[in-house]
Design a protein that fits this description.
The structure holds two protein chains of two kinds.
Chain A lengths: L20 H6 L2 H6 L3 H13 L9 H14 L9 H4 L1 H8 L31 H20 L8 H13 L3 E2 L2 E2 H17 L11 H6 L32
Antiparallel strand pairs in A: 1-2
Chain B lengths: L5 E6 L3 H12 L4 E4 L20 H5 L12 E4 L7 E2 L15 H4 L9 H4 L1 H9 L17 H15 L7 E2 L2 E2 L23 H12 L5 E2 L9 E2 L5 E2 L21 H4 L1 H4 L5 E4 L2 E8 L6 E8 L4 E12 L3 H11 L16 E4 L2 E8 L17 E3 L20 E3 L6 H7 L12 H11 E8 L8 E9 L5 E6 L4 H12 L1 H7 L4 E3 L20 E3 L23 E3 L14 H17 L12
Parallel strand pairs in B: 1-2, 1-13, 2-10, 3-20, 13-23
Antiparallel strand pairs in B: 3-4, 5-6, 7-16, 8-9, 11-12, 12-13, 14-22, 15-18, 15-21, 16-17, 17-18, 19-20
Classes of the chains: A mainly alpha, B alpha+beta.
Amino acid sequence: MVKSDPTSAPKPRFTLPRRSVTSALLGTTAFWLTQPSAGISRALAREAATAPYSPQFFTAAEYAFLMAATERLFPKDHNGPGATELGVPEFIDRQMQTPYGVGDNWYMSAPFQEGPANLGYQLPLVPRALYRQGIASLERYTHQQYGKNFAALPAPTQDIILTALEGGSLQLESIPGRTFFEQLRTNTLEGAFSDPLYGGNHNLGGWLMLGFPGARADFMDWVNQEGTAYPLPPVSLSGQTA
Amino acid sequence: MNTKNADAIIVGAGWAGTIMAKELTEAGLSVIVLERGKEHTTAIEGAYPDSIDELRGAIRKRLFQNLAKTTVTIRNTVDQTALPYRQLAAFLPGEGVGGAGLHWSGVHFRADPNDLRLRSAMEERYGKNFIPKDMHLQDYGVTYEELEPFFDKAEKVFGTSGTAYTVKGKVIGDGNVFAPDRSSDFPLPAMNDTFSAATFRKAAHDAGYHPYSLPAANASQPYTNPYGCQMGPCNFCGYCSGYDCYLYSKASPNVNILPALRQDKRFTLISNAHVLRVDLDGSKTKATGVTYLDTTTQRETSLKADLVILSAFQFHNVHLMLLSGIGKPYDPVKNTGTIGRNFVYQTITTSRVWLPENNYTNQFIGAGGVGVAIDDFNSMNFDHGPLGFVGGSPVWVNQAGVKPIAAAVGTGGHGTPRWGKGYKDALVDTYKHSLAIDAHGSNMAYRDVYLDLDPTWKDAYGLPLLRMTFTWKDNDIRMNQYVVNKIAPIARAMGATKVSLNHLEFGQPFDTRHYQTTHLGGGAIMGDNPQTSALNRYLQSWDVSNVFVIGSNAFPQGMGYNPTGTVAALAYWSAHHIRTTYLKSPGPMVQA
């Protein structure tokens, strides 16, 4: 598969949300909510969840890193599914193909100059480049240190590496480990908890875990129920229910 | 020969700009409003369900300023190199029709009378020596009594929900006992308390404080404002802050003013029009109009008008004044000049209280302006004498609707895992059973905290970026710590199982990476002395008398309250005096 250099790649086409064939055919959420179409919705969701996703931006090796690392950050446990089951790697790959992937609303004018951390991000790298260079550098490190790819390492070793990145003791060549870690952590959590239309939060698993009702957005009858949990399960923007 | 394009040109289509446009068209003037962003209407971009998409909304910043075009540089101290604010985080200015007034929360306060004359009030009570030497504490030059009719008018336009304490000197409700007297009640009754807010109300009361319902520009009932614009009742969907209300329940320029303005032939709105400068005549004492860039065609156009109103976001107003040569730039070394002087912010820290596991706080239920607050430690409502600091903070539970991505990113730290084992336990517990209590406080002005033009970085149009020199000072840190400590007994009374009190730390610089508040202020302040203020008490430039600058840029210091209510009142105040005085005899309304 040919992979483009993120610095010279043409600006990718922005896929507008909810302009898929599905939503065009089936219309608004109001329609979904009031019509007996939950069965269709569930079938579509199942199909989407089972169809294997081929990454468009990440190489197979990069994607293997993403699968492994995001699952360590957000592991499956007694609370619910982990990052891979929720589709987080797919979410991140899809995000790289939106304006966000090329840092379209970041100020990216030179000169780029290092400074104190509290003055914020100062690297000349947009998310695509951060991932490409960061993963490459991290894999060089794991090979040097352990003779294997990150994904092939046992979970406790992966956790040691992630901890070193988070704490800033591991520098990925020109990228501070902490910067790479925060990018990965933030995108992982976005994938776990954004609407499923972006490729993550499969079967609304993220929202179910939190008791977040999604697109219901009408709580007139539950403003104060003396601390009782909100009773209805989540619904997505396209009407998918859990 | 009359070659003007309009009687008045207004820069920015947020609250200040649309209020000024409404007032000036009512006075018979032709008005052109230039807005650098795009159109935003509730029926299209604001419609359900696309508008309530967290990823596209608050996370990917659908309604906020696009920093790729222009941003600011920031440093903490004058000996540092300021670096660009490359990613939105600490503050979130708006862009497009409605401005930040489209994505605001809706907390709608009247300024405290003492806050409007804080230097005088503090000196009267504690003496001149109480105020630190490097603190530029100043009066607004306008009093609460003078502004009251305009606070009243703004509330009626915004459809504000609240409970009054006194109207015309008579106690009429269990509102804020510290609030100033009003000429009329709120147009709508207060919003209901969420469970979190109700719990806080009871606990604060039991702890001996004076809880009240936050005044909210979120409609508790259907409402038609004096312009004939309609609002629907809020359903606590939780998508106020960072979003455009799909229910027409949160006041915005788009819902509460523009529907009326758009029907007026004297009103023209040009979007995608980025104003590059105010054009001045050779004397630099009169504006001839403005020059803007059409960002869709890249064509530059100069428009001529008799009157120019700057009503962009706080720091954009200051930036435009500096770029245009209006007034004298502030010099912190010589302590001269006024443009950029008294740049201020607010001290906001969020503490967290966990309730027992059979209590679900349902944090996704809420509204931006709704909540319960206490003012016992705000403004001058307590004795500063033994404390030795200036300023204060309201303390409140303002459950505005917590979304899952924001909750997930924010969970962890302070000894709690941020990922991996244990993280999800903390996240689920925090999301289901906790609530936030904010200390939303004042920030004073200092000689070495200011705005000027950056020497290095440029915007997409080749103009120098605005530079912020800002950090926290001991006075404000002490105030914040004092008030945050007052939260502990309230949390205990709430039956907390765990409490995390968060406050500013000494020596910790302002951090641009985490959202704090968009309530920036000052930089082109109002006052009664042209040596220490950029604008007179009518928000008219001392230096260029046909330029008025409307916004929180006029605040001499950051108050504990949210700024929008005061910005709106100042806009109506300024417009009233333009209509009744200035237009009859254009020129300086106060002699320097």
